[in-house]
Every structure is written in structure tokens, then in C-alpha cells.
Amino acid sequence: MSNPEKILHFEKFNFYSVCLIVGAVTFFYLYTLISNLVYTPDKVTIVELIVSVILISAMFFILANFFQLKLTMTDHYIEAKYGIFKKKVALKDILSLKPHEYKFSDFWGWGIRGNFKGTVAYNIPGDDYKGLLIEYKSGNKDKKLFISSREPEKIAGLYNGLIDIDR
């Protein structure tokens, strides 16, 4: 029987600004729709109702999936997770892992982002523009992943300690 994975580090970031923006847009949209249904029901078509349901569902999907970023490091992998979207990198596949400060212009936003250099980022505002830059093997390709972290130096130290033990 194999040993269960041991969680070495866990961080959770709540992205309240997404909730506020998506919630406000959804509220405004619902208010407008209900007003139209109450005051001018003859002008609301079935197509508008279907489109409204689709848009409101999309808003709740965004809210549910981009509300929170979770960063987990175990003795086997590092994982970044935004709702149903996640990226897991096995420690054995990592070529380098180091603390990294970034600029807003590196990814032009927050969330799950990519840039022209081929780096994928799982980042949020309010992280003091710091995190982990991970270079890893995926099949025959070298890839880069940036993950926001409040304690990138600690995670790098944990990783380096595990690598030293394996050598």
C-alpha cells in the first residue's frame, strides 16, 4: 500500500472583486428583465428569455469558478485550482521552481492567463505581484507555469528540501 500524500503547503485566495462585479452585473440584468416582464410583458419575447437564462447561467458559472484560487503543495505535486479549472504538476517533472515577481503587463490581467512567452498564469490581484515560476516537463516539451503565492520563498524552500532528500 502506498503512503498517502502529505500536504506541505496550502493557500487560498478569495477574489472578492469578481463576486462584486459579476454580482452587480447579474443584479442589474435581472432587475431590467423583471421590470420589462412586469411593465411591458407583451414586448418580451421567448428568445429574450432564453438568452437571459443563458447569460445569467454564464454569470453564475464565472462567479463559481473564479471566486477562489487554491494553491496546494504535497510531497508529490503542486496544484493551482480555480473552480473546475486546475493545473497539477508532479514534483518529479519540475525542472526549476523559484520565487518570481511579475508585472501586470506580463499577463495583462488576473485569472487564468497566458502570454506570448508561453507561460500560463494562475494569478489574482492583491498578491503583491509575487508568486512561483515553475518550469517543468510535459511530454517532450518544456513549459512554464506562474502561480500567485503569498509565500513563494517558503514553497521554494520546501521544494528544494524535497529535491535534496531524493538525491
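Next protein, fold it too.
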Amino acid sequence: MRGQLQHIAFSTTLTEQPQQRTQQSERTERAQQAQRADELAEAVADQLLARYGVVFRDLLVRETFSVPWRDILWALRRLEARGQVRGGRFITGFVGEQYALPEAVTTLRAVRARERNGTLVRVSACDPLNLVGIVVPGERIQAARNRSITYRDGLPVTLPRTSEARLVLTR
């Protein structure tokens, strides 16, 4: 009888240890996955800030990221807490949180103060700056290689297909 009790006690401790190790490894695995998800969300937030300067939910309509907005939002909040971005209302007409790079805020203020001079800028419809119907007023323009959008003082305009209009390409 005494030998049987020792055998049962020994086998119980052997079976508990692998379960504990499995639970610890599962917790570690989940923590690592959460860390990777946070790093990915922060990388996406950095990419969006580098591309647009100002980021808000409506801006992501054409983006195809697999990272959900809530994760990007948490990453932007962390960046704001570190002092790398600013949170606020930078572009009127949009609901929700907006985040901007400090240099984008300075540029937005300078553009708002600048007089309109009729500058024309042509952009490919495939360019991420094709924000007509999303941020810029107007009907959305499908992203196609053979299409372009011409902006006058930041607003989309339609120009006749003349040689002069085709030559108006600026940075």
C-alpha cells in the first residue's frame, strides 16, 4: 500500500509540471503575439503619418491594411504620449481623433495663411494623394493608370485636354 501511494504522488507531480509549463508557454506566446501586433500597428501608423502627415479614420477608406483602425489608434495614442505626434482637430469636417506630425501642423498653418495664386498640380489617380471624394470635396475618382487629377490651390478642377494642360506638371 505504501508503495502505491508514493507511485500516485509521483505521477501527479509529473503530470502537473507539463501542464504548468504549457500554460506558461501559452501566456508567453500570447504576450509575444500582442507585442508583434503592437509593433505592426505602430509601423502602419508611422507609414500613414509619413504619407499623409495627418491621420484620421476617414482617410483610410482606400487603404488595404490588415491592421484594424483600433490598433492603429492605440499606436497613435502611444506615439502622442511619447511626444512624437500631436493629437487634435487639424482638418475640419471629420469626426473622431486626428493625429499629425509636428511639421505637418506647421505646414497646415502656413498653407491656411497663404494667399491663393492659382497654382496647378497634376497627380495620377493611382497616387495616394487622390483623396477626391474622401477628404477633398467632389465625386470619387477611380484609381486608374490612365487618369489624372488636376488641383488648383488644393481643390480639384477639370481642365480641357490641351497641350498646355498636359504640360502643367509640378512636384
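About the second fold: The CA atoms of residues 6 and 12 lie 10 Å apart.
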